[in-house]
Design brief:
The radius of gyration is 18 Å and the shape is globular. Strands 1-3-2-4-6-5 form a six-stranded mixed sheet, sandwiched between helices. It is α/β, with parallel strands linked by helices. The chain has a single domain, classed as Uracil-DNA glycosylase-like domain (Uracil-DNA Glycosylase, subunit E, 3-Layer(aba) Sandwich), CATH 3.40.470. The termini are far apart. The structure holds iron/sulfur cluster and uracil. The site of uracil has 13 residues, from helix 6.
Length: about 250
């Protein structure tokens, strides 16, 4: 484990890497927010094995994935997005959360799970005794489906290679699938519905994977929070972590 203290130069490195990469993909200009640049720099600094340079067309660690996603037009969602949402968090997480795809807030900010469902996810993570920075939070598709519709099978298929790359890089001990679309993305369409399979461990390429409800579903169906908490307790036990006492009701 190497930790580089943040250097002033990093922000320039990040911008240069990012823009150079976009140029290799024929994108002449890009809008960049401070938040997205910060997430990009985090990805870069967690992936400094061989110095600077632009992100290559494959590989390049998490930053390479984020840069390729930023320039991606492999499916129609690339035409309507505002920002790509590659996902963010720890580069060495024990837990990786996988949702469906960006909503309006995520599309506006380029960050996963920052809207209402995201705030509930933050509370779930806190109840687990962790922070968002300790986990990785991502999605099946990296661009917002218009009107928040469910991504089509073609869109999911086009985008899944990025998720697979992220899983290979992050090597999480546990993947948590948030909702039916995440399950379908990782395991295909042949499984029973999320109500039937939530709470049951599955293996995704050897990684223990827990399907549970999506936080947006919990916003509409608060009583289901109990099921999700039970599923999260299973995850904590699997990781050998203590199970915090729930603090009051929520
Ligand atoms: Fe590319 Fe995925 Fe965005 Fe489609 S959703 S354009 S595959 S990054
Ligand atoms: N819902 C998702 O599935 N993903 C997000 O990033 C936000 C809401």
């Amino acid at each position: 484990m190497t930790h580089h203290p943040p250097k002033k130069k990093d922000i320039f490195d990040a911008v240069i890497d990012y823009v150079q990469y976009l140029q290799t993909e024929d994108t002449a200009s890009a809008e960049v927010s401070v938040e997205r640049l910060t997430a990009f720099r985090q990805a870069l600094s967690s992936n400094r094995s061989g110095g600077g340079g632009s992100a290559p067309a494959s590989g390049g660690g998490l930053a390479g994935v984020a840069a390729r996603v930023a320039a991606c037009r492999k499916c129609p969602l690339g035409q309507t997005r505002t920002n790509t949402v590659p996902g963010q968090g720890s580069a060495t997480p024990e837990i990786m959360f996988v949702g469906e795809g960006p909503g309006a807030d995520e599309d506006a900010q380029g960050l996963a799970f920052v809207g209402r469902a995201g705030q509930l996810l933050t509370k779930i993570i806190a109840a687990m005794g962790m922070t968002r920075d300790e986990v990785f939070i991502g999605n099946i598709v990296k661009c917002r489906p218009p009107g928040n519709r469910v991504p089509s099978p073609e869109e999911m298929e086009a985008c899944l290679p990025y998720l697979h790359e992220q899983i290979d890089l992050l090597k999480p001990k546990v993947i948590i699938c948030l909702g039916a679309t995440a399950v379908r993305g990782l395991f295909g369409g042949d499984l029973p519905g999320i109500t039937k399979i939530r709470g049951q461990w599955r293996s995704y390429q050897g990684i223990d994977t827990m399907p549970t409800y999506h936080p947006a579903f919990l916003l509409r169906n608060p009583p289901a929070k109990r099921d999700v908490w039970n599923d999260m307790k299973e995850v904590l036990r699997k990781l050998g972590r203590s199970v915090p006492e729930p603090k009051g009701k929520d």
